[in-house]
Every structure is written in structure tokens, then in C-alpha cells.
Amino acid sequence: MVIIIDIVIAVFGVYMIGAGLKMKKTGKISSIILAEEEMKKCRDEQGFISFIYWKEALVGAALVIVGALGLVSRVIELPRAVDFVEILVFLAVFLWFWRALGTARERFLSHF
Q1: What does pTM read for this prediction?
Q2: Measured between alpha carbons, how far is 15 from 64 in angstroms, rounded to an integer?
Q3: What is the pLDDT of residue 103?
Q4: Contact present, 67 and 13 (Cβ < 8 Å)
């Protein structure tokens, strides 16, 4: 069961990398980042994209690493401390991105 979670984390990481890079390439905000209603409130789409796309790709890369590390630790039987580090990294990256997304919303979305 835990192997499936590690695979899902890694696949979601790949998806986030792709979504971030696609956002930069197309100039359109990804629906994974903002809901449709929020996209309509965006005052500066290009500024929003420039601010967040690389952060999204970085989070995706971290998730791929965390997922791969989890898979390796299931196959090789690494110490339990690796699982703890995996969870800490996952939470730290998630919280960092959540905060960055909040900052992007404050800067680039109209609030009325």
C-alpha cells in the first residue's frame, strides 16, 4: 500500500513539473494552481506565471525525489529515519509552495 503512495507522489511530481513548464511556455495559468474563478481575477497573468512557474516545477522535482526515495527505501529496506526525512521534506516543500502561492494570490489577484 505504501508503495502505491510513493508512486502517486512521484507521478504527481512529474505532472507538476510539466504543468509549471507548460504554463511558462503557453502563457496560460494552470488550473492545478488556480480555480477558474480566481483566474478571472488575475490582474497580471504573465507576472503571476513568472512568479510561480519555477516554484511549481521545483516542488514537482522534490516530489519526484521523495517518491523515488520512498520506493527505494521499500525495496532496499533503508532505516526508518529515511521515512521520517521523506515526510519532513514533503511537508516542508508543500508548506513553502502553499505560502508562495498565497503570496502570488496577494500580488496578482484583485480582491474585489
Answers
A1: 0.86
A2: 10
A3: 95
A4: yes
